[in-house]
Amino acid sequence: MTQNPPKPPARPDRVSLWQYAKLFRTDILSAQPARLYRAWMAEFKTPFFRSYLLNQPDLVEEVMKKRPDDFPKSSRVGEGLRPLLGNSVFLTNGEMWKRQRRIIDPAFEGGRLRESFSAMLDAADAGQARLAPHATGQPVEIEAVTSHIAADVIFRTLFSLPIEDEVAQEVFSRFRAYQQAQPILNLAAFIRLPNWMPRFYPKGTRKNAARIRDLITQLTTQRMAQIKAGTAPQDLATKIMTTVDPETGKGFDTEEMVDQVAIFFLAGHETSASALAWTLYLLARYPEWQDKLAQEVTELDTLTFSNLSQLRLTRDVFRESLRLYPPVPMMVRESTQAETFRDRDIPKGAQMVLSPWHLHRHTRLWDNPDGFDPARWQTENGKTCQRTAYIPFSSGARVCTGVGFAMLEGVLILATLLRAYRFELVEGREPQPVAHLTVRSANGVWLKLTPRSL
After folding, report:
1. Cα atoms in the Cβ-side hemisphere of radius 13 Å centred on 349
2. How far, CA to CA in Å, does 432 sit from each of 125, 324, 444?
3. Which of 83, 201, 320, 383 is an S-S bond match for 374, by CB 3.0 to 4.6 Å?
4. Cα 355 to Cα 338: distance, rounded to the nearest angstrom
5. What does the alpha-carbon distance between residue 245 and residue 111 come to, in Å, rounded to a whole number?
6. Are 223 and 159 in contact (CB under 8 A)?
7. pTM of whole model > 0.85?
8. pLDDT tens-digit map of 260-306
9. Distance between CA 382 and CA 375 in Å, rounded?
C-alpha cells in the first residue's frame, strides 16, 4: 500500500543568533529558517565573521565554476577534520590542491571504473549475503548496513582487501566512532582562533584519528613494498601511488598518500553510506517505486558493468535521493577580495555558503521541491535544475573526483539489495536528518526486510 508522503521539514520563519549558534552546533539542518529556501541570497552576521548563503544559480556558478581560485575552500570547515585528513585534497587549496588532483584524477577515469566494477560487485554480493539472517521482518538499522557495504567497497577497490580483513575492520569500527562524535563544524568554524591556541575536539576524536592514520600508514607502506617488488595488485591504491604529477614528475610520498587515503575513505564510504540509507528509506516509504526498481533489475540476468546503464529508473531514484538528502549539506568558500553580489558589498574573508540542502529544495527553482518524484528528471524543469541547481557532488573545478564511482556504486548496491529483499517502514521510527560528517538520521534509519518474491 502506498504510504502518505512525509511532511516537509519543520522550518522556523526566524531564528535568533543565540538559537542559531545553539542549533548549529548540534543540528545544522534544524537551524535553517524557511526564508532561506526561497531567498536568492542571504547574509548572516555574527560578532566574528560574515557569511552569505548563495542560492541564485548564476552566483553559484560564479563562485564554483567561473572563479574558483578567487573563492578557495574555507579553512574554517577543515578545523574539525584535520586530525584525520591532514593535508588531503579535501582541505587544500591553490597549487597544492591542483597538484594533488593531477595525481588523483587519472585513477577515477572511465576506464578505471570498469576495472573497479568486479570488486564493487563482490562487496554488494557480500552485503546482500550478510543481510540474509536479518530478513525476518524485524526492524534493522539500515545505516549500519549501508556503512558496512560502502566500507567494503572502498577497501576492495582501494587495497584489494575485504572488510573482514583485520586492519580494514579496525579502520571501519574506529571511523564509525569518529563519525558519531564529529559535528559538521566545530567551535573553530565560528571563531578564527590564533594558530598557537590549542584546538578542542570531541572525546576520542584525536585518538581515533591517530589510530586510523597509523593503520592506513601500515597499508600504504606495505603497498609501496609490493610495488617495488612488482607484486602489487592493480587497484586504485597502486594506480595512485604509481602516478606522477605531469608538471613536476613527482608522486605522493607516504604521508601524502595517507592523507589521500583518509579522504577516500571518508568521501567514498561516509557519503555513499548516507546516500544509500536515505534511498532505501524513500523506497520503503514509496513501495510502488521500490517495485518498479525491483522489476527493472530482475529483467537483467546478471549485473555487469555494461548493462548497469539499463537501470535508468534506479539511477533516477538514486539521483532524487541525493537531491532530497545530499550527503554533504553545505560547502563553504572564502572570498579573497571585496565583491559585490546582488548589490551587497561582501568584504574580503567573508564565508560564501553553497548549500545543496537549500538549493535542492529551493521553492523558486524546483517543481514540488520537498516531494519525492524520480520522474522529475525526465521533465524540462528537472533537466534545467540538474544543470543549474543540483550539486550533490559539488561543482566546477572542485567537483568530486569520484562522482562516476559513486553513481556506479550506488546503482549497483541498490540493484543487488532490491533483487533480494523488500524494504518496509517501521511504525513510529521516522528518521530525523541531522548533519554530522554527512546527513545522517539522529535516531537511525530503521526498516524491516523480507525476502523478495516478484
Report:
1. 5
2. 29, 13, 8
3. 320
4. 21
5. 19
6. yes
7. yes
8. 998 888 878 889 999 999 999 999 999 999 999 999 999 999 999 99
9. 9
Rounded Cα gap, residues 280 and 278, in angstroms? 5
pLDDT at 204: 61
- Identify the DSSP state of 6: P
* Nearest in space to 315 (alpha carbons), one of 393, 391, 414: 414
The predicted pLDDT at position 190 comes to 42
Per the CB < 8 A criterion, the answer to whether 19 and 44 are in contact is no
d(CA 146, CA 138): 17
Confidence of residue 451 (pLDDT cuts 50, 70, 90): very high
| C-alpha cell of residue 74 | 574555507
Amino acid (1-letter code) at residue 245: D
Place of cell 530478513: 135
**DSSP letters of 338-355?**
-EEETTEEE-TT-EEEE-
Would you place residue 249 in the very low, low, confident or very high pLDDT band (cuts 50, 70, 90)? Answer: very high
- d(CA 359, CA 330) in angstroms, rounded, equals 10
Q: Cell 541531522 appears where?
A: 434
How does strand 50-54 pair with strand 351-354?
parallel
Please tell me the distance from the alpha carbon of residue 23 to that of residue 26, in angstroms, as a whole number. Answer: 5
**Which residues on adjacent β-strands are paired with residue 423?**
449
Confidence of residue 59 (pLDDT cuts 50, 70, 90): very high
Q: Give the residue with greater pLDDT, 8 vs 329.
A: 329
CB 440 within 8 A of CB 274: yes
